[in-house]
Amino acid sequence: MLEITGDPGIGKTRLLTEWSGLAERAGLTVLSGRAAGADRQLFGVVRALELPGVAEAICADDRALLLRCFATAHGKEAGDGGEPGPGEGPDRPAPGPPDRDRARLRRCIADLLWAAAGDGRRLALSLDDLQWADDESVELLSDLLRHPRPGTSLILACSVRPRQRSSALTACLADPDDAFRVERLRLGPLPRGTAGELSGLDATAEQQRFLYEAADGNPLYLRVLSRSPGPLVPPGGIAPWVLSDEAVMAAATVVARELAPVDAVEQDVLRAAAVLGEEFDPAHLAELADRNPVSTTRALDRLIALDLVRADHTQVRRCRLRHPVLRAVVHRGAPHGWRRAAHARADRVVREAGADPVHRAPHVARCAEPGDQDAVRLLTEAAEQVCDTDPVAAASWLRLALSLIREDGEGLRVRLTTSLARSLGAIGQLRECRELPRRIPRPPDAPPTRVDTELVAFHAMVERHLGDYSRAESLLTAELALLAEGEGGGAELSSPLRLELSTVSLLRRAFPRSRALAEEVLRHATEVHDRHLRMAATARLTHCSAFAGDVPALLHRAREAGALVDSTGDTELTPHLDTVSQLGWAEALAERHHDALRHTARGIRLARTTGQLFVLPYLGLAHAYASVSVGRLTDALRSAEAAEEDAHRMGRPALLGFAPALRAWATALLDGPDVATPIAERAVQELGAGGRLWAVTAGVLADIRLDQGRPGESLELIRSAMEHDRHPGTARSITPIWYSHAARSAATLGDSDQAAEWARRASFDADLLGLPGQRGYAALARAHSTPDPVGPLREAVSGFQTGGLVPMECRARLLLATELASRGSRDQTHELDQALEQANRAKSLADASVARRLYRDAVDVQRRLGARRPRPAREAETPLPEMSEREPVRMVALGMSNNDIARLLVVSPKTVEAHLTRIFRKAGVRSRVALVAALPNAGPEPGL
Q: According to the model, what pLDDT value does residue 90 have?
C-alpha cells in the first residue's frame, strides 16, 4: 500500500497519475478511480470486468449484479475524462443500488478485484481523493486491506487529504493486514527555486522568491499568483490580497468544487471570516455574518471539517482561512454591498474590542464615504504609524484619505500629499513621487517652515536618486536662499537642506563644497546633541573623504560613523538607511570591507522588512562590491542580481548598468573571462560612454579583456575611463587598480617604457592613499614593468593580504610562484619550494572563495612545479611499475583518484601524480576530463 498525503494543491493527484503511468509501463494492470461521494466507479469495476477471464471467475449471479449496477457507467469512470484539478472536491453522490443489495455488492466487487489480481496478474489500484469516499467505499477498502486473498498480487496507491478524511478512513488505512508492505509519503512544499519554472514566467530571482514564499511552496497557489500581473505585495494580515481578475478566476475555478457543498449559513460565515483577516476571533463571526451564534458555531465546525478554515489549537480564540489566496477568492466572491456592510460591522466590532487605527484602517478603507472626516483622520493616523515599517499600506491609505477629503480641506490635503510622497519614495515609485511635491501650493510671501524645508530636501533626494543632480541642486540652493532672506532661518531648518546638498555636491564632484556643508551640519548636530543628525553628517563626510582620496579623514570618519550606526537600534535607524548606504560605500573604498558588509547587510534587512525599497540598489551594490573584494563571490553575485532587479523596478538606468559590472567581476573570478564578457559588455552599453560609473565599469571590462589575451583593447578601455573621469579626486581611491591593468597591458604589448609610466602613476596615487590594497596594485604594476618582478610581487602579496583583497592575493601568489619557478639560480630546489608554497596558499584561498577559475590556475601551477622538482631518493626506490601509459589513463577514466591508483599499484600518490603530469604534458591537456576525451580508447577493459 502506498499512501500519499498532503495539503490541497500540493501535487498528490499529479504524483499519483505519474505513478500509475509508470506502473502501466512496468506491465501492471492499473485500475484508476477518484472518490466523489457515493461514486461506485472508484474501484474501476467496469474495466475489471473487461479483463480476460476475470468476469468468468465469479459466479453468474454476482456477475449479473455487477453488470446491472455498472452498465450505465460503462466507459465513464473517473480518470477517463481527464485528470481533475488538485483542488477539486466531491461530486454530487450518484444513485446506488437498493439497501438490501449493498452488502452483497461490496462482496461482489471484492471478489472481482481479487480475481483480477490472480492468475499471475499484477494489479494496481490507483485511488485519488479518498477523503471524499462514502462509507460504502471505505468499508470495501477496509475489506480489501484486512482480508487479502492468497496467491494474489495487489498494489493499492491512494491520495488523501489528512485534514479532511473521516475517522473510519483513518482507521482503515492505519491498520492493513501484515501481508501488505506499507509506504506512506507526505508531500511538502516544492524546493526553493522552482517558482519560475512552474509559473512559466520570466521572473527575476527576487520575484520568484516572493512567489514561492507567498504560495508556501504550493504549486497550485504558485500558478494562481503568477497570473496576477505587477508586483504582488500583500498588505499585512488584515486586508485581503489584491489579485488580478484573471488570478481570482483561476483560483475560483480550482476551489469551486470545494465550495459547492457549503450551504447558505456556512457561506456567510466563510465570507465573514474573509472580511475579518488572516487570523480572526470566532466570537466575532456571528455578528459579521448576521447569523445566530448556534448556527454560526455549527457552520464553523463544518468549515473546519472541510479544511476551508483551520483552527489554532494553541489559542482557543484564533482561526484562519487555509491560505490567503482562498481568502482573496472568498472575499472577492461576496456581493459588493454585502462586503461593504460587513466591513462596516467589522470596524465596529474591532473598535469596541479596543483595536488601534492600524487594525481598523483596512475595514474603514472599504466602507468609508466621501467627506467622512472621521475616516480621513483614522486612515491618516494609521498611515503615520506604519510609514516606516509598511510604506505600501501607508501609501494605499493616504491615497484613499486624499480621495475622501472635501474641497475645503486644503491644509490637510497638503499634509497628506507630503506624507504620500514620502511613502511612494520609500517603496521606490520615484517618478510618481517626483510629481507630488510640485502640486503642493505654497504661499509666495510666507516664510519657510520646517515642513517646507524637509519637503524640499526630500524632493531633492528623489531627483538625486533619479540622476537629475542639477535639478536637485537648484531646489536646495533656492530654498537655502529663502531661509537666508528671512529672519527665522536658523541651522535647525537649514540642516536637512545642507545635508542633502552635501551629497549632491559630492556626486557633482564639488568635494570642497560637499565637505564644508557636511561640517556645518555636524557642528550644529554636536551643539544641539542631535545624535541622528550627527550620524548622518559624519557618514556624508566619510563618503566625501572616500571620493576625494583623503584616506586619513576617511578612516577617522568611518570609525566614528560606524560606531554611531552600531549603537543605533533598528527602529531608530530605519529612517536613515540612505545614510547607511553612503557609509557602506565609504567603508568599502576604505578597505574596511567587513564593516561594509556588516552595515550594508543590516541596511538591506531593514529595507526589506520595513518596505524602504528606494535605497536597496545602493545597499546591494555596496554589499556586492565588498563581497567580491574579500572573495565572497557567490554572495556578491546574489547581491548584484538583487540590486539589478531593484534598479530595474525603480527605473534607475545608471545603477541598472553598474550592477552587471559587479556581476561580471565576480563571474570572471568564478568561471573565467569568457563567461563574464557578455555581462560586462552589456554593462558598458547600458551606461554609455561617460561618467564615474561608466569609468568603473570600463575598468572591469578592461581586466576581463586582459585575461582574454586582448591587451590592446584593455589599454584602450583604461584610457577611455581616465579620459571620462578627469577630476583628480573622483576615483582616486581606485586609480591604482586601473594603472595596474594598464601596466600589464603595456607590458604584454612589449612597450616597457609605457608600462613603467603606468607603474609610476600607480605608485604615486597609492602612496598618497596609503591603503594597503592599493599599494598592492601599485606593486603589481611595478612587477609588470621591471626585469626582476619577484620583489614587487612579494610587496603585492603583502599589500593584498593586509587589505583583505583575497582574490588579488591569490592572483599575486600565483604570479610569484610562476616567477620563482622560472628563476635559474643555483639554489633551484629552494626556489621551487618557495614557489610551491605560494601555489599551495593560492589554491587554499581560491578554494575558500569558490573561485573556480583561480583554483584551476593554482592546480596547473602546482602540476608544473611538481614536474620540475627533483624526485626524492625514496621515490627512486619504488619506481612506477612497468606499464603502458594507457593503464593509469584507464583508471582515471574509471573516476579513480591519485590515492586510489597509488593503492592499486602499490606506489606513493606523488609517484602517480608525477606520472600523470607527464602524460598530461605529452597529450597537451590540463585536466583529467580533457585527458580522457583526448584518448577515447582509454576506457576500462571489458569486464573490468
A: 40
> Is 722 in contact with 699 (CB distance < 8 Å)?
no
Instruction: Extract the residue ranges of the chain whose pLDDT is less than 50.
Output: 38, 72-95, 230-239, 727-730, 826, 873-883, 937-944
Maximum Cα–Cα distance across the chain = 111
The dihedrals phi and psi of 440, each to the nearest 5 degrees, come to -85, 115
Q: Cα(613)–Cα(615) distance, rounded to whole angstroms? A: 6
**Shortest CA distance to 270 belongs to which of 237, 232, 245, 305?**
305
Question: CA separation (Å) from 924 to 626, 857, 866?
Answer: 39, 16, 17
Contacts of 204 (CB under 8 A, 6+ apart): 641, 645, 648
Q: Which residue has the cell 583561480?
A: 854
pLDDT value at residue 925: 76
Distance, in Å, from the CA atom of 767 to the CA atom of 777, rounded to the nearest integer, reads: 11
Rounded distance, CA 581 to CA 618, Å?
A: 6
Q: What is the DSSP string of 343-409?
A: HHHHHHHHHHTT--HHHHHHHHTTT--TT-HHHHHHHHHHHHHHTTT-HHHHHHHHHHHHHH--TT-
How far apart CA 394 and CA 434 sit, in angstroms, is 18
Nearest to 51 by CA among 35, 32, 33, 30: 30
The one-letter code for the residue type at 897 is S
| Beta strand 154-160 pairing with 123-128 | parallel
Q: Looking at residue 721, what is its pLDDT?
A: 77
As to burial, measured by CB atoms within 10 angstroms (0-12 exposed, 13-18 middle, 19+ buried), residue 435 is exposed
Contact by Cβ (8 Å): 168, 198 = no
State the DSSP H helix or E strand holding residue 171, giving kind and residue range, or none if neither: helix 167-174
CA pair distance 865, 832, nearest whole angstrom: 7
Distance, CA of 736 to CA of 808 (rounded, Å): 13
pTM of the model: 0.69
State which H helix or E strand residue 453 sits in: helix 450-465
Secondary structure class of 707 (helix, strand, coil): helix
Q: Which residues pair with 32 in a beta bridge?
A: 126
SS3 16: helix
Class of residue 162 by CB neighbours under 10 A (exposed 0-12, middle 13-18, buried 19+): middle
The torsion of the CA quartet 301, 307, 308, 313, rounded to 10 degrees, works out to 60
Contact at 8 Å (CB) between 674 and 708?
A: yes
Give 237's strand partners.
none
- What is the C-alpha separation between 53 and 125, in angstroms, rounded? 19
- With cell 479532511, the residue in question is 164
> If we measure between CA atoms, which residue out of 222, 255, 221 comes closest to residue 331?
255
Per-residue pLDDT tens for 120-132? 788 999 999 898 8
Q: Which of 769, 767, 791, 768 is nearest to 780 (CA)?
A: 791
* Number of neighbouring beta carbons within 10 Å of residue 675: 14
Q: Which three cell numbers stand for residue 820?
A: 620563482
Its sign, for the CA torsion 242, 243, 249, 254, is negative
Q: Are 116 and 48 in contact (CB under 8 A)?
A: yes
The one-letter code for the residue type at 916 is L
Condensed to tens digits (0 to 9), the pLDDT of residues 221-235 reads 887 777 665 444 444
Whole-number Cα distances in Å, 297 to 269, 283, 287: 9, 9, 12
Which residue do the cell numbers 592575493 mark?
809
**Cβ burial, residue 507 (10 Å; 0-12/13-18/19+):** middle
**pLDDT at residue 182 in the model:** 94
Whole-Å CA distances, 538 to 472, 519, 556, 573, 888? 21, 8, 10, 15, 65
H/E run at residue 60: helix 60-70
